[in-house]
Amino acid sequence: MMIEKENKNIAFVDGQNLYMNTAKKDIDPWKIELGRFRIYLEKKYNVDRAYYHLGYTDKKYQDLYEKIQKAGFIIVFKQHSEAMVGLKKGNVDSDIIFSAMKRLYKKEDFGKIILVSGDGDYKMLVDFLIEENKFEKILFPDRKFASSLYQKLGSEYFDYLENNHIKEKIELKKKRAP
Questions:
Q1: Mean pLDDT over all residues of the chain?
Q2: What is the pTM of this model?
Q3: For position 81, what pLDDT does the model report?
Q4: Residue 53 in contact with residue 11, Cβ under 8 Å?
Q5: 80 near 58, Cβ under 8 Å?
Q6: How far apart are CA 40 and CA 37, in angstroms?
Q7: Most exposed among 31, 34, 56, 109, judged by the fewest C-beta atoms under 10 Å?
């Protein structure tokens, strides 16, 4: 008797959206400990591969890139022409959408997709993935900045990273003074 292997899920993280809506927000900022976040994605959502999309490379952020990779994420940088590097914001939405659709088109062997962003630009992708039974969950970094386009999405398809039951598992713990 052959045991069927459970398909592993894939996560796509919009790195700028995650950072801007947690650590960089004006009210009650908090930092995610990337290693704990990666483990959370694996344990809670059976994520085998987690792609962390960033806007562009800059040597001054090399330490950050190493932290992201050490935590178990696969970094994907947005392609820019040499003249535009450093002048554009991240805007990785189309890259994430294309990557997800390419995997579907090529019939890549995976379970479902988990998306980490509050950006409304992913709404059509989310709707299509639900229709194709290939969508697990969208994790909004911040309730206040989650796009209103997702309001009609059933609660089984989303959660907020700032919710206490998630935040306590992934938040960077502040070191206590000696």
A1: 89
A2: 0.89
A3: 53
A4: no
A5: no
A6: 5
A7: 109
